[in-house]
Design brief:
Blueprint: E1 4-10, H1 14-21, E2 26-30, E3 33-39, E4 43-49, H2 54-68, E5 72-81, E6 91-99, E7 122-124, H3 127-136, E8 141-147, H4 155-165, E9 169-171, H5 174-184, E10 188-196, H6 202-232
Helix pairs in contact: 1-6, 2-5
Length: about 240
């Protein structure tokens, strides 16, 4: 049986990967990005350190698809909370993403965040992967993610995002990653952990980044091991 190829895109959380897995089997510099390869019994991982922002995240995702032929893209990382209920270190699986700074309302009369050809402003993560994560880890929280090239650190701005889009968390890469996967028909899974609370900002993000990245990646690793152990045994897909 051919091993699965998992592409992982991280923005500023690469330290968690290195801490968990150590040095990779291979490191390549491609198109301005560093790609680290880890090989396992049931799947190989290709990890790209994209840096912050939607454009760079989209480019990194396309690189993994084109150069490594990955079977799926997984993104993990730190996010900001948009509600009081979302506490620091809370683990989330993203159901859908709103790219809220994509705005053609003055031209195409579409809703803010809605891409031409899409019936909704919300980009949907792969439902089957979300379902499997919820089965394997029932306590993880399914969320709507507000994504744009903006670091949101003020409580009033976070509340405004929640009220406008019904989002639970915010960050700066998910829309670029998910849109690229949808256009390439590649399954996409986004696992996040809260680094800064509703009233937290940049200082709390920096203080909690390393810790929550490790928490988040530990869950990602366990989920991958469980998913591919099930597949290797011929369990349900």
């Amino acid at each position: 049986m051919n091993k699965a190829k998992i592409g992982i895109v991280v923005a500023v959380e690469i330290g968690a990967v290195l801490s968990r897995y150590g040095e990779p089997c291979e490191t390549q510099k491609l198109q301005g990005y560093t790609v680290r390869t880890y090989r396992g019994d049931s799947f190989d991982m290709f990890v790209v350190d994209s840096g912050a922002g939607e454009i760079s995240a989209a480019m990194s995702t396309q690189l993994l698809i084109d150069r490594f032929g990955v079977d799926m893209i997984l993104n993990f990382g730190a996010v900001g909370a948009l509600t009081e209920e979302m506490k620091t270190s809370e683990l989330c699986v993203v159901k859908s993403v709103i790219h809220y700074d994509f705005d053609t309302t003055g031209w195409l009369n579409l809703k803010r965040g809605q891409y031409p050809g899409n019936s909704s402003p919300y980009l949907e993560a792969t439902p089957e992967l979300v379902r499997r994560v919820l089965e394997l880890k029932p306590d993880i929280i399914p969320t709507v993610c507000a994504s744009a090239d903006k670091f949101i650190d003020k409580a009033e701005d976070k509340i405004a995002l929640r009220e406008a889009y019904g989002a639970d968390i915010c960050e700066m890469e998910a829309a670029g990653i998910l849109l690229t996967c949808l256009r390439n028909d590649i399954p996409c899974l986004l696992i996040k952990a809260v680094s800064d609370s509703l009233i937290g900002g940049g200082a709390e993000f920096l203080q909690e980044l390393e810790r929550v990245s490790l928490v988040c990646f530990d869950v990602v690793d366990k989920l991958l091991q469980e998913i591919y152990a099930i597949e290797a045994k011929g369990g349900k897909r």
